[in-house]
Design brief:
Elements (H helix, E strand, L loop, with lengths): L1 E6 L4 H12 L4 E7 L4 H11 L3 E3 L2 H9 L4 E4 L7 H9 L3 E4 L2 H18 L2 E4 L2 H9 L8 E8 L17 H4 L9 H9 L1 H13 L7 E5 L5 E7 L4 E5 L5 H9 L13 H4 L13 H10 L3 H19 L7 H12 L8 H22 L1
Parallel strand pairs: 1-2, 1-4, 2-3, 4-5, 5-6, 7-8
Antiparallel strand pairs: 7-9, 9-10
Length: 362
């Protein structure tokens, strides 16, 4: 029986994880559950799973990550998840990383610590988990490129001129996935796919020039890895986060679940297209930031978090999100990131600047 801690158990990733744990009571024992504000759901989860420890405060969440557990599912959204993830890494856990911001902002620090302490970081994002399943880590030199697929979000077929009228309600209605508000908005701007490019760069032994995005509206194929012999390996599954989470929880042995199976004959046709950079300039900006040093990744992420928060609060428009990110990145001149305190310092500075930019745009 494996022991499991779920960081962010009331979020979309956390709830999918809890469902799998409840479906497999003979395979897992829950050590800790953590949440931010949804204490009512957390209490219900605790009643069902009977964890040793439950936390809602920041320090207690870090303590939960420090507790001995075989597997830690890191589902906290935003940079708030970085400190708990690092604690889990430092005790050598197997980490199902759904907190992409941690890898984006401190990728070298996390992977360095994982090597030092013997931790295993397995991405939970469907795209990165798909790459992980088909990437030949024993022969990385044989990989030509990694292609991450993107649904294109809810505005894929909208005219550019109409995007200025996008409301928060429309932006959070993802066509394929059930996700939290922040990630749904990121998908709507396609900034999420840009963040995933940066995350992939930190997760896999490839150069930035070996990373691409292709729009795939059906969200059936989650990623593809191209090899130097002409082979292309792809991972396909229903658009359900329980698939990658099951892979992490299985720890080498696939965990059965009741996710709907693909019926390719019924699907009939799968579509692919190049991204429309005129409609989604945030993705193009991310591709440029990907080529820059780590500090630019932190700025890109922090500015986006602030801008999305202000958009959801109706303080700025949809198109202002990428404008705020671009101005924040444009003002940055680079900085060495040697430890976590450097990450937090630059993040705080960027957020303050981004709030000023949002106030001007309001």
């Amino acid at each position: 029986m494996k022991t499991v801690t779920v960081l962010g158990s009331t979020g979309s990733i956390g709830q999918s994880t809890v469902r799998l744990l409840l479906d497999n009571p003979d395979k897992f024992r829950v050590v800790a559950l953590t949440a931010n504000k949804n204490t009512e759901l957390l209490s219900e989860q605790a009643r069902l799973l009977k964890p040793e420890f439950v936390a809602t405060e920041a320090e207690a969440i870090v303590e939960a990550a420090s507790m001995q557990a075989d597997i830690v599912i890191a589902g906290i959204v935003g940079l708030a998840g970085l400190a708990p993830v690092m604690k889990a890494v430092e005790r050598g856990a197997r980490i199902g990383l759904a907190n992409k911001e941690a890898m984006i902002c401190a990728g070298a620090l996390l992977t360095g610590a994982a090597k030092k302490f013997g931790a295993e970081i397995i991405p939970v994002d469907s795209e990165h988990n798909a790459v992980f399943q088909v990437f030949d880590f024993a022969h990385p030199e044989s990989v030509e490129k990694i292609v991450l697929t993107a649904s294109g979000g809810p505005f894929r077929e909208w005219a550019v001129v109409d995007l200025k009228n996008v409301t928060p309600e429309a932006a959070v209605k993802h066509p394929n996935w059930s996700m939290g508000a922040k990630i749904s908005v990121d998908s709507a701007t396609m900034v999420n796919k840009g963040l995933e490019l940066i995350e992939a760069f930190n997760l896999f032994p490839v150069g930035h020039e070996q990373l691409e995005v292709v729009v795939h509206p059906e969200s059936v194929i989650h990623s593809l890895v191209y090899y130097n012999d002409g082979a292309v390996l792809a991972q396909a599954a229903a658009a359900d986060m329980r698939v990658p989470i099951s892979y992490v929880l299985g720890a080498g042995a696939r965990l059965a679940n009741d996710v709907a199976r693909l019926d390719l004959a019924r699907l009939g046709v799968l579509n692919f297209a190049k991204p429309d950079y005129a409609k989604f300039p945030g993705l193009k900006l991310a591709e440029e930031v990907l080529k820059c040093e780590q500090s630019f990744h932190i700025v890109f992420n922090a500015a986006n978090e602030v801008a999305v928060e202000k958009f959801l609060a109706r303080e700025i428009g949809f198109l202002d999100i990428v404008k705020v990110i671009a101005e924040s990145v444009g003002a940055h001149r680079g900085r060495q990131i040697a430890e976590l305190v450097d990450v937090y310092a630059l993040d705080a500075e960027t957020r303050a600047r981004a709030r000023e930019l949002c106030a001007r745009a309001a």
